[in-house]
Amino acid sequence: MTTAQDVIRVLVAKPGLDGHDRGAKVIARALRDAGMEVIYTGIRQTPQMIVAAAVQEDVNVIGLSILSGAHMELFPTILQGLQENGMGDVIVLAGGIIPEDDLPALKAMGIGAVFGPGSSTRDIIAFIRQAMGEKGKKASA
Predict the structure, then answer these.
(1) CA 140 – CA 137 distance, rounded (Å)
(2) Which of 3, 30, 70, 117 is most buried per CB count within 10 Å?
(3) Coil/strand/helix, residue 14
(4) Which alpha helices (H) appear in the chain, and where do they start and end?
(5) What's the structural domain count of the chain?
(6) CATH no. for residue 37?
(7) pTM higher than 0.90 for the full model?
């Protein structure tokens, strides 16, 4: 039986000035249909707004969807804000249009995974469940 504590809480956010949110909405619905609690912030969110929502909603995972190319400027600010608010253990994922050359730097700064166009929602769900399982094992060790 699943309790409220067992439900994975995911914040899906669109940082920056990007106004295209179809992909984020598809992901949000897939995660919800997989039994996760999803909070969707909407478009044009500042890093501070995303961090505040993550803190307020006490999420386990944050999915950042970006198409604008500003990920190398926005993501570090979000990650720093999470650290400053005691949420450095939140799993942060990225999706959208992100050049392959940026992947090593994103991983090094703390982005758990990057899912580009054509990524399967099943793969995203499986990654989140696996990451949450590993996080639970570390917490109980």
Answers:
(1) 5
(2) 30
(3) coil
(4) 22-33, 47-57, 71-84, 103-109, 121-140
(5) 1
(6) 3.40.50.280
(7) yes
Give the domain extent around 73.
4-140
* Cβ pair 94, 64 in contact under 8 A: yes
Closest CA to 10 of 26, 28, 22: 28
| Amino acid code (one letter) for 11 | L
For residue 86, count other CB atoms closer than 10 A to its CB.
Answer: 9
Query: d(Cα 33, Cα 20) in Å, to the nearest integer?
Result: 22
Residue 78 · residue 112 · CB < 8 Å: no
How many residues in total does the chain contain?
Answer: 141
**pLDDT tens for the chain, residues 1 to 141:** 444 568 999 999 999 987 888 999 999 999 999 999 999 999 999 999 999 999 999 999 999 999 999 999 999 999 999 999 999 999 999 999 999 999 999 999 999 999 999 999 999 999 999 999 987 655 554
In contact, 91 and 62? CB cutoff 8 Å? yes
Cα 8 to chain centroid distance, Å, stands at 12
What lies within 8 Å, CB to CB, of 118 at 6+ separation is none
Report helix, strand or coil for 97. coil
